[in-house]
TrEMBL record:
The keyword RNA-binding does not apply. It comes from the Bacteria. Residues 86-174 form the FMN-binding domain. This is FMN-binding protein. Keywords: Electron transport, Flavoprotein, FMN, Phosphoprotein, Transport. InterPro entries: FMN-bd, Ion_transpt_RnfG/RsxG. The keyword Electron transport applies. Pfam families: FMN_bind. PANTHER family: ION-TRANSLOCATING OXIDOREDUCTASE COMPLEX SUBUNIT G. The lineage of its organism: Bacteria, Pseudomonadati, Pseudomonadota, Gammaproteobacteria, Methylococcales.
Length: 183
């Protein structure tokens, strides 16, 4: 009888914990919606799988000032009438203890155009507002850091740093694996 009472308490506690673990998880856009954000409705989207050499990994890490977790990168190339209109990458990284997924969009020339939050699993107060994400546009890789030009968001410092690191990584991958190979 005593075992049964504790077992019920344990089950109720376990269910409560499991349901509250994902209480903050928010998915804002699906992959299909993300591609429309990046390229519009009528673009042709091609995926490029990029595999950097060990030397290219070193270059990317030096440019981005972040450590790469993988040697496989997927870039999406949006085209209209055969002309590249934008590049995009979907980046996931852990903010504090839970992931955020961002869509980083580059112009055809490889400049940062937009950063969108696709999913965010930390508490909502840690999510940088859209107007802050808009501040990242048109910055070069050298200008992307928390500084006087781009200030952090009180209460969302780790999220803003993660967004900047993701954008820097995508810009560096573009420079080393796409731009340098097309010249």
């Amino acid at each position: 009888m005593l075992f049964s009472k504790y077992f019920r308490f344990f089950l109720i506690s376990l269910v409560f914990c499991l349901t509250t673990l994902n209480a903050y998880a928010t998915v804002f856009y699906s992959k299909e919606e993300a591609m429309k954000l990046a390229f519009g409705d009528d673009a042709t989207v091609e995926m490029q799988s990029l595999f950097p050499t060990p030397e290219e990994v070193v270059q990317i890490e030096q440019l981005a000032k972040v450590k790469l977790e993988s040697n496989l990168f997927s870039f999406y190339v949006g085209k209209k009438q055969g002309t590249v209109i934008a590049y995009a990458a979907i980046e996931s990284r852990t903010v504090r203890t839970k992931p955020e997924t961002l869509l980083v969009v580059l112009t055809p020339e490889g400049k940062l155009r937009n950063v969108y939050t696709l999913a965010f699993h930390e508490p909502p107060e840690y999510l940088p507002p859209e107007r802050w994400m808009d501040l990242l546009a048109n910055h070069s890789i050298e200008e992307l850091s928390l500084s006087k030009d781009i200030q952090g968001v009180a209460g969302a410092t780790l999220s803003t740093r993660a967004a900047i690191n993701s954008a820097r990584k995508v810009l560096a991958i573009y420079q080393v694996l796409i731009q340098n190979k097309s010249h």
